[in-house]
Structure formats: C-alpha cells, structure tokens
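batch_manifest entry 22 of 60
target: tRNA pseudouridine synthase B
source organism: Lacrimispora saccharolytica
requested by: lab member K.T.
priority: normal
notes from requester: please return tokens only, no post-processing; we will run our own comparison against the previous entry in this batch. if the run fails, retry once and flag.
--- input ---
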Amino acid sequence: MADGIINVYKEQGFTSHDVVAKMRGILKQKKIGHTGTLDPMAEGVLPVCLGKATRLCDMLTDKTKTYEAVMLLGRETDTQDTTGTVLAEYPVLVDDSMAEEAVLSFLGHYDQIPPMYSALKVDGKKLYELARAGKEVERKARPVEILDIHVDRMELPRVTMTVTCSKGTYIRTLCYDIGRKLGCGGCMESLLRTQVSGFYLKDSLTLSRIQELRDEGTLENHILAVDKVFSEYPAFRMKPDFDKLVHNGNPFYRSQAEGDSRLPDGPVRVYDSKGQFIGVYGPDREKNLLKPQKVFLGGTT
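--- output ---
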C-alpha cells in the first residue's frame, strides 16, 4: 500500500470524490482521501492522501490556498457561478478603476455568508441538497480572510483575479459579494486552484498521467513522504532506549531524545532511533515534556 501525498490536477467535470474513487482504482487501495472539496467546474491542485497519510487530510484542509478566478459582472445565479440558473441581470456601468477598487477592498478579514449550493450542513442536511429541493435556509456569516488579492486582467464585464485566502472561503461567494458592492451583480465564470500550502500547479498530475506513471513503475517518485509536509519543523531523534515510548504514541521528556535538554518553541518532527518517522509532537511546558499532536507510526515511504 502506498503511503504519502500526491499532487493531483483535478480536471473540470470531476468532483473531489470522483478523484478519490479513480485513485482507488488506479492504486488498488481503499485508504485514500482528499484535502478539501473543489467544485466540479473548478480545476487545479488537489492534494490526495494515501495510506497512513490520510491522517493528514484535516491538517491540509486548514491550509491557505491560492486561486485564479474569472468573475463575470452583470449576472447573478442561484449557484453564484455561471453553471447555475440566472436569477438577475444588470447593466455593468462601472469602469476599470471602480471594478479594481471594489476587488481590492476585500483584502483582509470579512464575514462571508456561505452559498446554498455548498456541502455545509444545517440540521444534518447538506445545503446543496436543500437547494436542489427548492429550499433556502438562513446561513450564518462566517469569518474568512483574503490574504492577498489582485487583478490580473480587466476586460469588463470580466475580471481575472488571483486570490490567496484562508480555509472556508468560497470564491464564488467572493465574486457575488464584489458584484453586490459594485451594484451590478456578479458570479464566477471559471476557477483554477494554483496552490495549497506547499503543493503547486506546476507539479500537479492529471489522473491519466498518474496511471501512466503507475504503468511505468515510477509513480512512487511523485509521492511525497508524510514527514516532508512538516519539513519546516525541527527534527528530533529518539535515544534507542526510548523508542517504545513513541512507538506507542506516548509523550516523552526532552532528555529522552538526542540533543540538548531544552524544550522546543513549537512543533517538531519526531523519529525513532532508526530514523523511522513517528509524527508531530508539541511542547507541554507545564509538564516539561513533548506530547503527540499527530502520530503516523512509520508514515514515511
């Protein structure tokens, strides 16, 4: 069974669950998960976790993401993108500078109301299921952060922009909100995810390419070992007498690992004395030890 993360290029028309299903068929293993839903019309970077790395899914979902989006002004739809039913159309009476000013005004924190066509649940029901049944329910605004936003091309009524944002941000809704601010409405025409944390578009592989690499016997060269995701954290290696502690997922004192006895300032990668990756540990200053945050028990490949 393969363990690690593979950078998949999700193509238009596939859901994230479709990608996982196809990867299960390609690799002939069940333990596979994706790291955050991409709409069927969207394409781009979708890190997929294999084997023990599926324990990483929630951690990668929380990472910041970068998108290239085309916003179409003058139209509002029920899905907030051009695949939906048109609800209203308005004349676009703004100029380039007005449109750019509105786009840039969303830099920073803002409260975003999730779209009805989303996988969020209200009272146990997914919003898109309610929407398809013709029902609309009240949704609470959620705090999101636009870390960076800029206009790449202005061809009104279309605006191409690059957005780096926090988890939980809907680019469709951002387009809708910008359109509302301009008074002419707006929706998303296309979306390309170019980055998720340390995974970039240039390194992503289509499903057909992954299948080719599998047949060539070289796919493992494109699977990132679990510990590489945490390469920014310092590495700690256990003393041989204390391997059993971390093999069982237990906390340990700093003196039970190689190096000086000071506790680290933040998370660390922990390996046993033979170099096998165990997981990520963090300092507990009250008890003067390191305790597990995420254990993989040999999650390297």
